[in-house]
Amino acid sequence: MSDELWSLIEPLLPEPGPKLVAGRPRVPDRQALCGILFVLHTGIQWEYLPQELGFGSGMTCWRRLAAWNEAGVWDQLHLVLLKRLRSAKQLDWSRAVIDSSHVRAARRGPKAVPARSTAHGRAANTTSLSMARASRSLCR
């Protein structure tokens, strides 16, 4: 990860809480972020994140991702990056897509008309039998 990108992300990260128990030192946020990006880029499972890469364990990276998600880091980063791209006039709106899963529709479509019945009267119930037939058992 470039120093420029890290300088944008670092101020958005929440301060870590105090350690409740003694143990291993906390994995630095930059290394954990690199581990998160590695997993998301490669598609490997969290538990298979190689320790040799120095990102910490997969569970550490997963917990950090969840904590940052809960703190709204990714939404804030998205806004920061959009602002930078907009100021540099590098946003290409010709490739933008919007749908109802992201934005509520302003107007409703035409009301659906109830389907007409195809039969004259009610249909016979074919799921129940009379009690006399239903209670008869072949195994006595």
UniProtKB/TrEMBL annotation:
**Pfam families hit by this protein:** DUF4096 (PF13340)
Which InterPro entries does this chain map to?
IS402-like_dom, Transposase_6_like
Region Disordered: start-end pairs: 108-140
Residues forming the Insertion element IS402-like domain are: 1-78
Q: Which NCBIfam families match?
A: transpos_IS5_3
This chain belongs to which protein, by name? Transposase
Organism, scientific name: Streptomyces caelestis
Organism lineage reads as:
Bacteria, Bacillati, Actinomycetota, Actinomycetes, Kitasatosporales
